[in-house]
């Protein structure tokens, strides 16, 4: 049995507490302890971006993050994205551009796109490609995902 | 071994006291530790020491004649730092070739150095830039510090000269001499999320047609990131022409000791070292 620690953090704007084994990943905490299954488990080792969340303002792979290290931090997951104006715009653009097929990569893509557009409000297509280089999609061939992120950056501009 | 203690101190002194007890795993960004422990390649010690809240390890600052990069600075922070951009462009370049945005945001330079992978992306430019590792420990009442040149720090894959009771606090980079030119090159099969098949760093001061104070390092071609002293000797003070480039590149091919693995065969790595060294030297000659 692993040692457990009680931690507290702000999750999608809500003060949240959890008791986590110290070797648990933030991804397992979100999905298995807190029931937020929007964040996806795919490779489990940092290669695919399906588990992307934002911690203290920067995107990260939650499968690589120790859950205990979330103590005192601010987390945003896909469940918290729709409530944010930019996040809502990105989600709509994904729908409008047909950027979703099986949808498994989509939560990670949308969270990463939001973090990317916050730092690059008027990106070129090449910058968008670099921005999502840590996110794999097995279905779409990326073109429509890039279209969607571009469209979201243009919406009401 | 099951973890029995977890600490997340905010001061260096407290962190070092926990470390003094022994059997402790240091946690920074976790991007190496998490996959290594999940796959069972590494097991956590009895104590887990999360150093991420020690603010004094998270600064980039000018100190006399050098820049000190705190061990907790992330690859993204280093890539965007104006001091680093101004004086150590080849380090910023290596950070730009590191994994993906999500990884760069979490991975720390201290983790990259202490993980001591022969393919670690920051290690080759750090060697060329004559970096030193600044280590701290607290054997008694006071914090003690020592510095080790990075060229002597790596012992083998995953092994360094850091003692178990020591924490890596910072990487110290002397300001390069005026006229310094540095180049970093990483060869992988795709631009993102790729571990280097080989990487090369070359630096020196342009003096007419020659390069002096030449420094050369290679990644993923030996058990440790390699400072290539024989190659440096062949390059030092020689006219930067095609004949020199061929000779230096041949010396480098002979000096490196690569292995076969899933990313490349030893033979291919040697050929890459030869061709890419030659190409970079042509580029430096044009600079
Ligand atoms: C998908 C993926 C892609 C990657 N791509 C790259 C890449 O392109 N290039 C590259 O170089 N690396 C890459 N890595 C490896 C890894 O991200 C880096 O080595 C990173 O810099 C490690 O930093 P960290 O802060 O996450 O270290 P951690 O995982 O926290 O620690 C790594 C090791 O260093 C020790 N340690 C950490 N900080 C200290 C300290 N201050 N004092 C003493 N010991 C310490 C830890 O105990 C541990 O043994 C990749 C990893 C993954 C999972
Ligand atoms: S599940 Fe985390 S990157 Fe793939
Ligand atoms: S839509 Fe299926 S993986 Fe991207």
CATH architecture of the largest domain in chain B: 2-Layer Sandwich
Structural class of chain A: alpha+beta
Number of domains of chain A: 2
% residues in beta strands of chain A: 15-25%
The best one-word shape of chain A is globular
Lateral strand order in the biggest sheet of chain B: 4-5-10-6-7
Tell me, rounded to a whole number, the average pLDDT of chain B. 95
Give the CA-CA distance, first to last residue of chain B.
Answer: 54 Å
Q: How is the CATH topology of the largest domain in chain B named? A: Uridine Diphospho-n-acetylenolpyruvylglucosamine Reductase, domain 3
> What is the average per-residue confidence, as pLDDT of chain A, rounded to a whole number?
96
Estimate the strand proportion of chain B: 25-35%
Topology at a glance:
The complex is a heterodimer of chains A (157) and B (287).
Chain A: E1 4-11, E2 14-21, H1 26-33, E3 52-55, E4 58-61, E5 74-76, H2 78-81, H3 85-96, H4 106-119, H5 125-131, H6 143-154
Helix pairs in contact in A: 3-4, 3-6
Chain B: E1 5-7, H1 12-20, E2 24-27, H2 33-38, E3 47-50, E4 60-63, E5 66-70, H3 75-80, H4 82-87, H5 89-96, H6 101-106, H7 109-115, H8 123-128, E6 132-137, E7 144-149, H9 150-153, E8 154-156, E9 159-160, E10 167-174, E11 180-187, E12 198-207, E13 210-219, E14 226-227, H10 229-235, H11 242-255, H12 266-286
Helix pairs in contact in B: 10-11, 11-12
Task: List its traits.
heterodimer, A: 157 residues, alpha+beta, Ubiquitin-like (UB roll), DNA polymerase, domain 1, 2 domains, 6 helices, B: alpha+beta, Uridine Diphospho-n-acetylenolpyruvylglucosamine Reductase, domain 2, Uridine Diphospho-n-acetylenolpyruvylglucosamine Reductase, domain 3, Enolase-like, domain 1, five-stranded antiparallel β-sheet, 12 helices, 26% strand, globular, binds flavin-adenine dinucleotide
């Amino acid at each position: 049995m692993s040692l457990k620690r009680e931690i507290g953090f702000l999750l999608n704007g809500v003060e949240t507490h959890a008791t986590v084994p110290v070797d648990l990943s933030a991804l397992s905490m979100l999905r298995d302890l807190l029931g937020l299954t929007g964040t996806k488990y795919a490779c489990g080792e940092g290669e695919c971006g399906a588990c992307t969340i934002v911690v203290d303002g920067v995107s990260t792979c939650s499968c690589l993050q120790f859950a205990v290290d979330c103590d005192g931090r601010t987390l945003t997951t896909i469940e918290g994205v729709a409530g944010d104006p930019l996040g809502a715009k990105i989600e709509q653009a994904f729908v409008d551009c047909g950027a979703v097929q099986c949808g498994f990569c989509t939560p990670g893509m949308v969270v990463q796109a939001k973090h990317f557009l916050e730092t690059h409000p008027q990106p070129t297509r090449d910058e968008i490609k670099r921005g999502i280089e840590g996110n794999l999609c097995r279905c779409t061939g990326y073109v429509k995902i890039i279209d969607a992120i571009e469209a979201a950056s243009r919406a009401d501009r | 071994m099951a973890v029995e203690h977890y600490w997340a101190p905010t001061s260096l002194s407290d962190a070092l006291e926990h470390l003094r007890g022994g059997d402790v795993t240091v946690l920074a960004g976790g991007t190496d530790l998490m996959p290594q422990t999940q796959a069972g390649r590494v097991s956590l010690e009895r104590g887990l020491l999360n150093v991420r809240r020690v603010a004094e390890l998270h600064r980039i600052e000018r100190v006399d004649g050098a820049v000190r990069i705190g061990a907790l600075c992330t690859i993204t922070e280093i890539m965007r730092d104006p001091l680093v951009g101004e004086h150590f462009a080849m380090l910023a370049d290596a950070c730009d070739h590191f994994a993906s945005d999500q990884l760069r945001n979490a991975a720390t330079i201290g983790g990259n150095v202490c993980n001591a992978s022969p393919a670690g992306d920051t290690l080759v430019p750090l060697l060329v830039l004559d970096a030193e590792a600044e280590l701290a420990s607290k054997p008694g009442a006071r914090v003690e510090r020592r510095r080790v040149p990075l060229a002597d720090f790596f012992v083998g894959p995953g092994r360094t000269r850091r003692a178990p009771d020591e924490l890596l606090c910072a990487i110290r980079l002397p300001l390069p001499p005026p006229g310094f030119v540095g180049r970093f090159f990483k060869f992988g099969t795709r631009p993102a999320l790729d571990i280097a098949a080989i990487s090369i760093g070359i630096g020196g001061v342009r003096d007419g047609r020659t390069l002096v104070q030449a420094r050369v390092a290679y990644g993923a071609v030996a058990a440790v990131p390699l400072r290539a002293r024989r190659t440096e000797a062949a390059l030092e003070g020689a006219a930067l022409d095609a004949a020199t480039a061929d000779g230096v590149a041949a010396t480098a091919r002979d000096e490196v000791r690569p292995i076969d693995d899933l990313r490349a065969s030893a033979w291919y790595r040697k050929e890459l070292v030869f061709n890419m060294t030659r190409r970079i030297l042509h580029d430096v000659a044009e600079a």
